[in-house]
């Protein structure tokens, strides 16, 4: 019993929400400051976890699990995620061609607070109801699905049938940030008036001004959006709009014309940042929704290497040559 209470105390302290047994609030963590006086978020951080974005039906309505439930939940998720399993036939074997050696082992652990979903609002831990898509967006999605089907069948018409991630233009470096199978590190740099976030995945860096300047004109759109930040006490608040008009690369298929993100970075311990994001798009979801993901500091001796993405810079000629040969042989999608 004592261990259970101790574990719960550690979890809640990490979130900065605990009160002591005597009812007195503990001393609030004071993040270090940069030489120019901003809260210091610098370092390499990792957001890997097996806690799913949405609450699984298997846990019912529980938002936080007991110690015993959490242990079983983590074990089940780790079993589902491991790349070392060879059950499931040929398809599973191909899908697990990269074994655990190449994966981020930290992704097999649930969050320390034992939540059942990364989504904290709505309280059911689920993505809100989807909005009804207007005909023009339905047409865009249908065209994208056709391109994807041609590519999957080995019959792409041309290079545009390959998605932007496959072509190494953008991947999980587009905000908001979610855990993935590997490359879950982020390096934060700061200088007077700016914060820069460099994800390990692919090659982009978000250079975020925190000097109060206005957003770009709405017609100026970028792959990572137009990002501006400001400080609210110890929290860096980052607001992003003006995404490039290609909804196939945006989070959950959001509409670039109406998609906005508000991110909050709060250092809650020497080795922990709470990363919270709220996404809003009235043409995609019935209401805004929020997720909270812990970022844990990486050992300073662990270097973050450049991610060189060459997925189809070389193989594109093979994809297209093979497609033309298949067509010549009478194959169709």
Topology at a glance:
Elements: H1 2-15, E1 43-46, H2 67-81, H3 89-95, E2 119-121, H4 135-152, E3 185-191, E4 194-199, E5 206-209, E6 226-232, E7 235-241, E8 260-269, E9 272-280, E10 289-297, H5 316-328
Antiparallel strand pairs: 1-3, 1-10, 2-10, 3-4, 4-5, 6-7, 7-8, 8-9, 9-10
Protein architecture, described:
With 333 residues, the chain is α+β, with helices and mostly antiparallel strands. It has 5 helices and 10 strands. The protein has helices spanning 2-15, 67-81, 89-95, 135-152, 316-328; strands at residues 43-46, 119-121, 185-191, 194-199, 206-209, 226-232, 235-241, 260-269, 272-280, 289-297. Strands 1, 2, 3, 4, 5, 6, 7, 8, 9 and 10 form a 10-stranded antiparallel β-sheet that branches. A hairpin with a 2-residue loop joins strand 8 (260-269) and strand 9. The longest helix is centred in the middle third of the chain and has 18 residues, at 135-152. The protein is globular.
- Total number of β-strand segments? 10
Question: Strand fraction band?
Answer: 15-25%
Class per helix and strand makeup = alpha+beta
Give average pLDDT, whole number: 87
Tell me briefly what this model is.
The chain has helices at 2-15, 67-81, 89-95, 135-152, 316-328; strands spanning 43-46, 119-121, 185-191, 194-199, 206-209, 226-232, 235-241, 260-269, 272-280, 289-297.
